[in-house]
Specification:
Order of helices and strands: EEEEEEEEEHEEEHHEEHEHEEEEEHHHH
Strand order of the largest sheet: 1-14-13-12-15-10-11
Structural class: alpha/beta
Distance between the termini: 40 Å
Strand content: 15-25%
Number of helices: 9
Radius of gyration: 22 Å
């Protein structure tokens, strides 16, 4: 039996460059990056030095505040370099990968027969506990806490997002094993959100020992934070954990095979992608290993680890993020248009309102670039945010509270319920051109600092 969540507000962004449902080879990188910056709230301490040998599953980083919280290597090989930034901040650990991956053996487990402490101990030992994200604030989950529930959204409505029914079609047994194990960690059960549009054919509809929610609506309906707000809103003092379906499969593989196997299908997408498709790869692969999907001589390209709205711009010299199953390749838009928005006929421009004629061709896609077509200006008080945010909060007041650093107002207007990605559509339609996701991120940082 499933619960229905029908969301009326939101925005589908018709970005061109969707990945065809085909796998175009396997990426075997020479180097893989482990980036502590992927894990919010994780204070990294190095456990390796340059020249050390590691296996897939060997611990590479530990948290300074909680030494049991580890991040492990996704490949076997040799530690090639320790990359640091300003003030010696640790940015990445580079591993020179073996041609054939060798795994550390953690033993095969039966999730149905495990106790909660045994599940936690295994995830901590294997370095997969940081895959669990804790809300509020979107930080690495604290293993000493018991969340009121655990949430997994098995689909994404973000622009050009990877089709998980395709990418995880062969991993249902691993997904089920993960659900069985995580169910031991919370009294509120594991909540699984599936797309109502494909519910009848989705393998995730067959998940047992979970609470299934059929969700319909435009983006951000697929965001786990939006689903939580309609299932069990996060109040002050609440703790919930979330998990991406890709990493749920990785946890399931650990249980069923005893190996830390982070392999996944990556969707290479975007208007500037050549023959966009999927590749078998690992987190931490170099963007340059995907050169066949873009023109290396082209200027002004932006490489985003994740989706175009809320992903991280990593550059051609960057690496795929730990939580990402998508790379988006966009064109940097820097030119200025004659007349701009005053011109009523802009056939190549998408408008979320009816300012242009894009509403007459709802199935058309657009090669949208990064041009914001204007600079930051004063807030326009309207319901433009509310029309694209299907959550029971006051986004304008929350954003202003974050700008002011007013903790009381941030609490009042919903800071516990959101992460920056949940307001990405607000940023896209914002007539004031504000960097809303950055504002929310700084507000969350203020809350962590002042409330800890």
């Amino acid at each position: 039996m499933s619960n229905n969540i029908d969301l009326k507000r939101g925005l589908t962004i018709p970005l061109s460059g969707a990945a065809a449902l085909k796998t175009s080879g396997t990426i075997v990188p020479q180097t893989v990056a482990i980036k502590p910056t992927d894990f919010k709230g994780f204070a990294p301490r190095l456990l390796v030095r340059e020249g050390d040998k590691v296996l897939a599953g060997s611990p590479v980083l530990a948290d300074k505040q909680n030494p049991d919280l580890l991040v492990s290597s996704p490949v076997s090989g040799e530690i090639q370099a320790i990359v640091r930034g300003d003030k010696r901040k640790l940015l990445a650990v580079l591993v020179k990968a073996d041609e054939k991956v060798q795994y550390q053996d953690f033993g095969i487990h039966n999730p149905g027969g495990m106790k909660a402490e045994e599940v936690k101990e295994l995830l901590l030992k294997a370095g997969l506990f940081p895959a669990l994200v804790q809300r509020p604030y979107g930080i690495v989950a604290d293993p000493s806490l018991t969340p009121k529930a655990i949430f997994i959204s098995t689909f994404s409505t973000a622009p050009l997002a990877a089709d998980t029914e395709y990418t995880l079609s062969e991993d249902f047994a691993a997904f089920q094993a993960c659900v069985d194990a995580l169910g031991k960690l919370t009294p509120g059960g594991v909540h699984v959100g599936i797309s109502k549009a494909t519910a009848s054919s989705s393998p995730f509809h067959k998940v047992e020992r979970a609470i299934i929610h059929e969700v319909s609506g435009k983006h951000p309906a697929g965001n786990v934070g939006v689903q939580i707000s309609h299932i069990s809103p996060i109040m002050k003092g609440d703790t919930v954990w979330t998990l991406s379906p890709v990493l749920a499969v990785a946890i399931g593989r650990l249980l069923l095979t005893g190996k830390v196997d982070l392999r996944r299908k990556i969707a290479v997408t975007g208007p500037m992608a050549i023959d966009p498709a999927y590749v078998d790869a690992l987190p931490g692969i170099p963007v340059k290993s995907l050169r066949k999907f873009y023109d290396p001589t082209a200027n002004e390209l932006r490489f985003v680890s994740g989706d175009a709205l809320s992903g991280e711009s990593v550059g051609e010299d960057g690496y795929l993020g730990y939580f990402s199953d998508q790379i988006t390749i966009l064109r940097e838009g820097r030119e200025r248009e004659l007349l701009g928005w005053i011109n009523p006929i802009r056939p190549k421009q998408f408008s979320s309102s009816r300012a242009y004629f894009s509403w007459l061709t709802p199935k058309k896609t657009y090669p949208i670039d990064t041009n914001t077509h204007g600079g930051v200006r004063a807030f326009v008080c309207s319901n433009v945010y509310g029309d694209v945010l299907p959550m029971d909060i006051f986004p304008v007041y929350l954003i202003k509270a974050c700008l002011a650093g007013n903790i009381d107002d941030m609490e009042k207007y919903g800071i516990y319920e959101v992460l920056p990605e949940d307001l990405a559509t607000c940023e896209f339609v914002d007539p004031s051109k504000n960097d809303i996701q950055d504002i929310i991120a700084k507000g969350i940082d203020t809350m962590i600092k002042e409330m800890s």
